[in-house]
Amino acid sequence: MLFKRRNQENRWTRLRVSMLPRRSYGRSMRYYAKRVMRIRATPHAIAAGVAAGAFASFTPLMGFHFILSFLLAFLLRGSMIAAAFGTAVGNPLTFPAIWASTLSLGRWLLGVDGNGADGTEFGSVFAEQGFVALWQPFIKPMLVGGVPMGLLVGVLIYIPTRMAVAAFQMRRAAQKAERAIALQESQASGHDVTEHDRRGIAS
Fold it and tell me: Quick one: pLDDT at residue 2?
Protein backbone atom coordinates (compact mmCIF):
# COMPACT_ATOMS: atom_id res chain seq x y z
CA MET A 1 0.00 0.00 0.00
CA LEU A 2 1.35 3.43 -0.95
CA PHE A 3 2.59 5.55 2.03
CA LYS A 4 1.98 2.68 4.43
CA ARG A 5 4.22 2.60 7.49
CA ARG A 6 7.11 0.18 7.32
CA ASN A 7 6.87 -0.49 11.06
CA GLN A 8 3.24 -0.58 12.14
CA GLU A 9 2.39 1.13 15.43
CA ASN A 10 0.57 -0.82 18.10
CA ARG A 11 -2.78 0.21 19.55
CA TRP A 12 -1.33 1.93 22.63
CA THR A 13 1.07 4.01 20.53
CA ARG A 14 -1.78 5.17 18.29
CA LEU A 15 -3.85 6.07 21.37
CA ARG A 16 -0.95 8.01 22.89
CA VAL A 17 -0.34 9.93 19.68
CA SER A 18 -4.05 10.80 19.45
CA MET A 19 -3.85 12.36 22.92
CA LEU A 20 -0.31 13.76 22.68
CA PRO A 21 0.46 14.58 19.03
CA ARG A 22 4.04 14.29 17.86
CA ARG A 23 4.08 17.81 16.43
CA SER A 24 1.41 20.27 17.61
CA TYR A 25 -2.25 20.37 18.56
CA GLY A 26 -2.91 23.06 15.96
CA ARG A 27 -1.69 20.83 13.16
CA SER A 28 -3.58 17.85 14.55
CA MET A 29 -6.83 19.83 14.79
CA ARG A 30 -6.45 20.99 11.17
CA TYR A 31 -5.95 17.36 10.17
CA TYR A 32 -9.06 16.31 12.13
CA ALA A 33 -11.08 19.11 10.50
CA LYS A 34 -10.11 17.92 7.02
CA ARG A 35 -10.98 14.34 7.91
CA VAL A 36 -14.37 15.43 9.27
CA MET A 37 -15.13 17.38 6.09
CA ARG A 38 -14.48 14.29 3.96
CA ILE A 39 -16.79 11.97 5.90
CA ARG A 40 -19.48 10.63 3.59
CA ALA A 41 -22.64 11.69 5.38
CA THR A 42 -25.14 14.54 5.43
CA PRO A 43 -24.12 17.89 6.96
CA HIS A 44 -26.51 17.22 9.86
CA ALA A 45 -25.09 13.77 10.54
CA ILE A 46 -21.52 15.05 10.59
CA ALA A 47 -22.30 18.12 12.70
CA ALA A 48 -24.45 16.11 15.13
CA GLY A 49 -21.67 13.55 15.49
CA VAL A 50 -19.04 16.19 16.24
CA ALA A 51 -21.39 17.88 18.71
CA ALA A 52 -22.05 14.54 20.43
CA GLY A 53 -18.32 13.96 20.82
CA ALA A 54 -17.83 17.45 22.21
CA PHE A 55 -20.67 16.97 24.70
CA ALA A 56 -19.19 13.67 25.89
CA SER A 57 -15.86 15.41 26.55
CA PHE A 58 -17.55 17.60 29.16
CA THR A 59 -18.56 14.64 31.30
CA PRO A 60 -16.18 13.23 33.93
CA LEU A 61 -16.75 9.68 32.65
CA MET A 62 -13.15 9.11 31.66
CA GLY A 63 -12.74 6.00 29.55
CA PHE A 64 -16.35 6.15 28.34
CA HIS A 65 -16.28 9.28 26.18
CA PHE A 66 -16.23 7.28 22.93
CA ILE A 67 -19.12 5.04 24.03
CA LEU A 68 -21.18 8.01 25.20
CA SER A 69 -20.47 9.96 22.01
CA PHE A 70 -21.50 6.96 19.86
CA LEU A 71 -24.75 6.56 21.82
CA LEU A 72 -25.60 10.26 21.49
CA ALA A 73 -24.71 10.24 17.80
CA PHE A 74 -27.01 7.26 17.28
CA LEU A 75 -29.89 9.03 19.06
CA LEU A 76 -29.29 12.22 17.03
CA ARG A 77 -28.89 10.29 13.77
CA GLY A 78 -25.34 11.53 13.60
CA SER A 79 -22.16 10.02 12.25
CA MET A 80 -20.29 7.85 14.74
CA ILE A 81 -17.04 8.53 12.91
CA ALA A 82 -17.63 12.26 13.35
CA ALA A 83 -18.46 11.62 17.02
CA ALA A 84 -15.06 10.00 17.52
CA PHE A 85 -13.39 13.08 16.05
CA GLY A 86 -15.58 15.30 18.23
CA THR A 87 -14.14 13.81 21.40
CA ALA A 88 -10.86 15.54 20.48
CA VAL A 89 -12.41 18.61 22.12
CA GLY A 90 -11.33 16.93 25.34
CA ASN A 91 -7.55 16.55 25.41
CA PRO A 92 -4.70 17.05 27.88
CA LEU A 93 -4.67 20.77 27.11
CA THR A 94 -8.40 21.36 27.63
CA PHE A 95 -9.27 18.81 30.33
CA PRO A 96 -7.98 20.91 33.28
CA ALA A 97 -10.16 23.85 32.22
CA ILE A 98 -13.14 21.57 31.49
CA TRP A 99 -12.88 19.81 34.84
CA ALA A 100 -12.47 23.03 36.81
CA SER A 101 -15.36 24.81 35.08
CA THR A 102 -17.80 21.89 35.23
CA LEU A 103 -16.95 21.28 38.87
CA SER A 104 -17.48 24.93 39.82
CA LEU A 105 -20.76 25.17 37.92
CA GLY A 106 -22.01 21.87 39.31
CA ARG A 107 -21.27 22.84 42.88
CA TRP A 108 -23.01 26.17 42.35
CA LEU A 109 -26.09 24.47 40.89
CA LEU A 110 -26.16 21.93 43.73
CA GLY A 111 -25.44 24.57 46.36
CA VAL A 112 -22.55 22.65 47.91
CA ASP A 113 -19.17 23.84 49.22
CA GLY A 114 -16.06 22.49 47.55
CA ASN A 115 -13.92 22.83 50.69
CA GLY A 116 -11.05 24.14 48.60
CA ALA A 117 -10.87 21.11 46.29
CA ASP A 118 -9.90 22.12 42.77
CA GLY A 119 -11.20 20.50 39.59
CA THR A 120 -7.69 20.41 38.15
CA GLU A 121 -6.87 17.78 40.80
CA PHE A 122 -9.56 15.44 39.49
CA GLY A 123 -7.27 13.36 37.27
CA SER A 124 -4.67 12.55 39.91
CA VAL A 125 -7.23 11.97 42.67
CA PHE A 126 -9.27 9.73 40.36
CA ALA A 127 -6.21 7.57 39.67
CA GLU A 128 -5.46 7.24 43.39
CA GLN A 129 -8.90 6.77 44.95
CA GLY A 130 -11.16 5.47 42.18
CA PHE A 131 -14.68 6.26 41.05
CA VAL A 132 -16.72 5.51 44.21
CA ALA A 133 -14.67 7.68 46.55
CA LEU A 134 -14.92 10.63 44.17
CA TRP A 135 -18.65 10.46 43.43
CA GLN A 136 -19.92 12.97 45.98
CA PRO A 137 -17.09 15.55 46.04
CA PHE A 138 -16.15 15.50 42.35
CA ILE A 139 -18.02 13.32 39.88
CA LYS A 140 -21.61 14.22 40.83
CA PRO A 141 -21.11 18.01 40.62
CA MET A 142 -19.02 17.61 37.44
CA LEU A 143 -21.86 15.66 35.83
CA VAL A 144 -24.40 18.29 36.89
CA GLY A 145 -22.18 21.09 35.59
CA GLY A 146 -21.03 19.20 32.52
CA VAL A 147 -24.50 18.67 31.06
CA PRO A 148 -25.41 22.35 30.48
CA MET A 149 -21.87 23.24 29.46
CA GLY A 150 -21.70 20.27 27.09
CA LEU A 151 -25.06 21.20 25.58
CA LEU A 152 -23.93 24.79 25.05
CA VAL A 153 -20.63 23.79 23.46
CA GLY A 154 -22.39 21.13 21.37
CA VAL A 155 -24.81 23.70 19.92
CA LEU A 156 -22.00 26.20 19.31
CA ILE A 157 -20.04 23.51 17.46
CA TYR A 158 -23.02 22.04 15.58
CA ILE A 159 -24.04 25.24 13.77
CA PRO A 160 -20.68 26.24 12.20
CA THR A 161 -19.77 22.61 11.52
CA ARG A 162 -23.00 22.00 9.61
CA MET A 163 -22.53 25.22 7.62
CA ALA A 164 -18.89 24.40 6.83
CA VAL A 165 -19.67 20.81 5.77
CA ALA A 166 -22.60 21.94 3.60
CA ALA A 167 -20.41 24.52 1.86
CA PHE A 168 -17.60 21.98 1.38
CA GLN A 169 -19.96 19.38 -0.08
CA MET A 170 -21.49 21.96 -2.44
CA ARG A 171 -18.03 22.97 -3.70
CA ARG A 172 -17.07 19.35 -4.12
CA ALA A 173 -20.28 18.56 -6.03
CA ALA A 174 -19.67 21.56 -8.30
CA GLN A 175 -16.12 20.42 -8.99
CA LYS A 176 -17.32 16.91 -9.81
CA ALA A 177 -19.93 18.35 -12.18
CA GLU A 178 -17.28 20.45 -13.93
CA ARG A 179 -15.03 17.41 -14.30
CA ALA A 180 -17.94 15.37 -15.67
CA ILE A 181 -18.69 18.05 -18.27
CA ALA A 182 -15.02 18.24 -19.22
CA LEU A 183 -14.92 14.45 -19.54
CA GLN A 184 -17.98 14.41 -21.80
CA GLU A 185 -16.48 17.13 -23.96
CA SER A 186 -13.22 15.21 -24.23
CA GLN A 187 -15.06 12.05 -25.24
CA ALA A 188 -17.15 13.95 -27.78
CA SER A 189 -14.03 15.45 -29.36
CA GLY A 190 -12.38 12.05 -29.59
CA HIS A 191 -9.68 12.66 -26.98
CA ASP A 192 -8.49 9.77 -24.83
CA VAL A 193 -9.85 9.77 -21.29
CA THR A 194 -7.41 8.62 -18.65
CA GLU A 195 -8.24 6.49 -15.65
CA HIS A 196 -7.22 9.45 -13.47
CA ASP A 197 -10.01 11.54 -15.01
CA ARG A 198 -12.61 8.84 -14.32
CA ARG A 199 -11.48 8.52 -10.71
CA GLY A 200 -11.70 12.29 -10.28
CA ILE A 201 -15.37 12.21 -11.17
CA ALA A 202 -16.14 9.17 -9.04
CA SER A 203 -14.40 10.51 -5.91
Answer: 42
